Amino acid sequence: MNDSLVEILLVEDSQDDIDLTLHALRRERLANNIFVVRDGEEALDFLFCSGKYADRSFDRPPKLVLLDLKLPKVDGMQVLERIKGDPRTKSIPVVVLTSSNEERDLAAGYSLGANSYIQKPVDFEQFRRTVKDAGLYWMVINQAPVSNGVADTAGKAR
Amino acid sequence: MVLTGLMGFLGWRSAEKAAENADWVTHTYAARDAIDATWKQVIDMETGVRGFAVTSDDSFLEFYREGQRALPQDLKLVRQLTADNPAQQQRLERLVAQVNARLEVLSATLETTQRTGVPPKALLVEGKRRMDAVRATVAEMEAEETQLLDRRTKQTGTARRVTKAIISAGSLLGMVLLLLSGVAIGREINLSARLRQQLNSLNADLEQRIAQRTAALRESEGRMAGIIQSAMDSIITVDEEQRIVLFNAAAEKMFRCAANEALGQPLMRFIPQRFHAVHASHVRRFGETGGTGRAMGGMGALWAVRADGQEFQIEAAISQIVTGGNKLFTVILRDVSERRKAEEALTGQAEELARQTDELLRSRKALETQTLMLQSVLDSMAEGLVVADEDGKFVIWNTAAEKIVGLGATNLPSQKWTEHYGLYLADMVTPFPTDQLPMVRAIHGETTTAQMFVRNSQLDEGVWIEASGCALRDKDGAVRGGVVAFRDISQKRADEQKIRQLNEELELRVQQRTAQLEAANKELEAFTYSVSHDLRAPLRHIAGFSGILQEEFGGQLQPEARRYVERIQQGTHRMGLLVDDLLNLARVGRQELRPQVTGLAPIVSAVIADLEPDTEGRKVEWRIGNLPYVEADASLLKQIFQNLLSNALKYTRPRDCAVIEIGQSEVNGQTVVFVRDNGVGFSMKYAGKLFGVFQRLHRAEDFEGTGVGLATVQRIVQKHGGRIWAEAELDKGATFYLTLGPAKDAEFEPQTVIAGEDLR
């Protein structure tokens, strides 16, 4: 996958969750340029063009980050903190995927600037609907904060 | 003849003249005697009055009365004898006036003395003055007479010489005759005159002596009478018939009986009836023995009776004299009633004194008994008891006191006590302030309690004492000293310290337990969170995939397969419920530690044996060193090693030969157990997350795991008050260290030694 065309960065360590999330996004035709990283460290390398993603450019950031909080090495909260704390990345919308309301409340309590929270429901249908709504909203409907041609790409992805 | 006659006449005349002259000499003598007699008379009168004044004895007045009678005669005689001398007559007139003046004063003196009983001093002085005048005139008159006597004696001599001349001028015959007769006559005249003169002189001398003797006797008698009258003792004189002849003023007073009533009365009147017979025999015996006297008190106390019948006690001295053939007894009596009373009182006092002395002796004996009792009480006391007076002088210092502080009472001033006994404050080095010592404060009236440390030459180790002092007060509340009781509290203090230490340990344990509980709570919270998060995730996956299967491939499935998918979904739902139950269980369940001394070696061996299925097909080298005995919960110990050893096996999976070492080492004096492997290790960067619940440093598909194992190990270690940590390097293996007790607690014992003993 050409990561320079990434529209959605999915940060998730669980393969099951990845498969289920991708399945849901495909159903809504939002899965064309999805890039998956498996832990927080890799997510940060990708977003900040470091490590094995050093050749990436800040000019083409993902249009949306779907971020799981429970991650090996660097957890989701730290990743969120880095994204929202850096002027180069803070405008990237981040939708936090949480396993529980408890986790969501905890993350929200940190006021780290997540654009949205999605609780991963045990009920798969409900999960799929939520993912679709969030993806649509941030990638299609709400393009206002994006000023670097993301909207065009989003339109193309459609 | 005529001549002879003339001569004879002349001779006669001359002789006559001489004879006449001789008469005049005699006359002059007489005059002088008369003057002297008059003077003596005045003196007698004065003496009589003075005697009376001194003694009130009427007998003295005899002199006075005699003088009154005789004096005019004396003066008349003087007047006659000096009639021929006008100068003497003049002097006589003056003398008479002076004598009268003297007598006037004398009379007044007598009158006043009789009336008042006291001689008037002023009159006595005046009397003396007038007497002196009388004396001067008398002396003047006597001097005149003496002069006349001298002159007349000379005239007599002259007449004799004239007569001799006449005779020599006469005829031989006549001359011879005359001479003879003249010589004879002259001789005769001369002899006669001389004889008369001598006689007169002798008479006068005798009279004067008699007068003087009489006066002296009268004076002596008067003086004696005065003494008798004025004696303090009663003086009674009785005659042979025991009739009272003298009864002095003191006797009057003693017997309450006037002298005139007593005189002539029998002495028996003043002796109680019952002693009459005895008295009579005494008198008889005394008379017979003829002794002259018996001293006062020689007869002991006698009884007498007063005129009014009251009896009283006397002492008597008795003497007998014989005068003029009469035997007189004189008794001198002294009233000894008062003295007797005083003596009786004295006797009473002596008896009282004896009684009091007895009482005192009894009291002293009782006191001695009490003192002994007190002493034995003091000596048997376990507490030290010391008592000091208000000057800080110790009066009691019991055996226990000496035993506790090692020293006895001292005479040193209180400022030296601290140094002498080695008294210190609680820090054991600061000398106890002397003004704060319980005894010092007790003497100042304060009640105090103090703890102090005592260390001196007798007490090398030193002792702790607790002393309480209070003032000793007399019944008026005045401080009379202080008493201090003290006891050895060294053991008590040691116990207290032990208790304190135990409390501190307990506190520490409580803190540790609290920390454990907090950790447990935190873990429980993390567990709760994980259940709702991580355990739900696979459940969600099952639900998700089975949902996709049902939704997207339901049509292709055999009805039986569709039912299976349905059952999976049901199972998923059931598992959701189970998870909730587990969550509840985790919250409620709290495992209690059951520590016991356990050897680690058998536990490790057992765990390795349990892990054998996992090592199938692998090359694993177990290196097991010396392992200690520990006091711990055996089942939890096993969980520790199950986790650590399975981790070691898991993360050495990529190795051709896994080397896993279990042993002990010493870190900071504490035994530490370690588990070392040659596995993939990890970056120390993430070491802080190593023991967090569900924390993982590896991807799940590389190394399976729940992320609970090390958290569980840490929890168990913490429950035992121990510590766990890890050292690792990526790709170069990891070592986990753990202790199973608080630092520096020697709960680890080298098991080798014990094992060695077991082997033997």
Architecture overview:
Helix content of chain A is 42%, strand content 14%. Chain A has helices spanning 15-27, 40-47, 76-85, 101-109, 124-141, 150-157, and strands spanning 8-11, 34-37, 64-68, 94-98, 116-119. In chain A, α1 (15-27) crosses α5 (124-141) and α2 runs parallel beside α3 (76-85). Chain B has 760 residues and is of the alpha+beta class. Chain B folds into 4 domains: 2-183, Four Helix Bundle (Hemerythrin (Met), subunit A); 231-335, Beta-Lactamase (2-Layer Sandwich); 381-488, 2-Layer Sandwich (Beta-Lactamase); 592-738, Histidine kinase-like ATPase, C-terminal domain (Heat Shock Protein 90), CATH 3.30.565.10. In chain B, a hairpin with a 2-residue loop joins β10 and β11. In chain B, α1 (2-55) runs parallel beside α5 (172-230), α13 (490-533) runs antiparallel to α15 (559-588) and α13 runs antiparallel to α18 (709-719). In chain B, 28% of the residues are buried. The A-B interface holds A 13-17, 19-20, 23, 38-39, 70, 72-73, 99-100, 102-103, 120-125, 127 and B 529, 532-534, 536-541, 543-545, 547-548, 572, 576, 686, 696-701.
**Structural class assignment of chain B:** alpha+beta
Q: Give start-end ranges of low-pLDDT stretches of chain A.
A: 144-158
Main β-sheet of chain A: number of strands, strand sense, barrel status? 5 strands, parallel
| CATH architecture annotation name of the largest domain in chain B | Up-down Bundle
Topology, number of strands of chain B: 19
Rg from alpha-carbon coordinates of chain B: 78 Å
Query: How far is it from the N-terminal to the C-terminal residue of chain B, by CA?
Result: 210 Å
* H/I helix tally of chain A: 6
